[in-house]
Specification:
Distance between the termini: 44 Å
Strand content: 15-25%
CATH class: Alpha Beta
CATH superfamily: 4'-phosphopantetheinyl transferase domain
Number of strands: 9
CATH architecture: Alpha-Beta Complex
Order of helices and strands: EHHHEEEEEHHHEEE
Number of helices: 6
C-alpha cells in the first residue's frame, strides 16, 4: 500500500439543469447505451452529468483515453478505470468526481461526497441518529446557526469513507467517528483516511482513501466544456 497518495476533485455546477443533449455529445457509445435504457428522466440526468464529470476528470489525468476507457467495479462495488480508483457524488445541483492521482495501485480505493448546505427541518433528529457521541457533542456545543454545516461536515466524511471501503452503505453511519482522521469502521480491517476540500464556497467535498492522503487538488469544470451556457 502506498505511503501517501494524492487525489484530484472535479466539480460540475448546475448538473441537474444542463440539457442532456449537450452532455452526451462527449460520452462514448457504452455510456449512451446505458443512458438510452433509462426511463426515469431524473436518473438519466444524474447519470449523464455524472459520467461527463467523471470522464472529464479521467481525461485530465490520463489523457484523451479518459473519454472512452471502460469504467468497472470491484467485488465490493467500488469503481475504477485505467487502474485508478475513482468516485462520484451528486447533490444540490453539483456532480463531483474524484480520481486517484497516484501511480496504478490495485489495492487503493477512494470515496467522495458532496452535500451543499440546505435547510433540514429534521436536523435534530438526524444529529441524534447519525452522529457518534463525540461528533454530536461537537455539533451541539455550537450556536444553532452553525450546527447545520457542522453536521454536514461529518455526514460528508462518513459517506466518503463508506464509499472507499465498499460493500454498500448499509453500515450504520453512527458506528464510527469522523472527528479525526483516520476513521475506524467496524468490520473493516484497515483505517480509512479522510479530508475536507473546498472547490468553492458553494461546493464543499469530503474525500476518503484507503491510504494516507497527500495533496487534494480541486477544479470546477468550465461551463462551456459541458455544452456552453444554459
Amino acid at each position: 500500500m502506498l505511503a501517501q497518495a494524492d487525489i484530484g476533485i472535479w466539480a460540475l455546477r448546475d448538473a441537474d439543469r444542463l440539457p442532456i443533449a449537450r452532455i452526451v455529445r462527449r460520452l462514448p457509445p457504452t455510456d449512451r447505451a446505458r443512458l438510452d435504457a433509462m426511463r426515469s428522466k431524473t436518473r438519466a440526468q444524474a447519470f449523464a452529468a455524472g459520467r461527463f464529470t467523471l470522464r472529464f476528470a479521467l481525461a485530465d489525468v490520463i489523457g484523451p483515453d479518459g473519454w472512452t476507457v471502460e469504467i468497472v467495479s470491484d467485488p465490493l462495488g467500488r469503481p475504477y478505470a485505467a487502474g485508478r480508483a475513482i468516485s462520484l457524488s451528486h447533490a444540490g445541483g453539483w456532480a463531483v468526481a474524484a480520481v486517484s492521482l497516484a501511480p496504478e495501485d490495485d489495492a487503493l480505493r477512494i470515496g467522495c461526497d458532496v452535500e451543499p448546505p440546505a435547510p433540514r427541518r429534521d436536523l435534530d433528529r438526524l444529529i441524534a441518529r447519525v452522529l457518534t457521541p463525540d461528533e454530536r457533542a461537537a455539533v451541539e456545543a455550537l450556536e444553532p446557526n452553525a450546527r447545520l454545516e457542522a453536521f454536514l461536515r461529518y455526514w460528508r466524511r462518513k459517506e466518503a469513507c463508506l464509499k472507499a471501503v465498499g460493500g454498500g452503505l448499509s453500515r450504520l453511519l453512527a458506528g464510527f467517528s469522523t472527528v479525526a482522521s483516520p476513521a475506524r469502521i467496524p468490520g473493516v480491517g484497515q483505517p480509512v483516511h479522510f479530508r475536507d476540500a473546498e472547490v468553492n464556497a458553494a461546493c464543499i467535498v469530503a474525500v476518503a482513501q484507503t491510504a494516507p492522503i497527500g495533496r487534494v487538488i480541486c477544479a470546477e469544470i468550465p461551463r462551456n466544456e459541458a455544452g456552453g451556457p444554459i
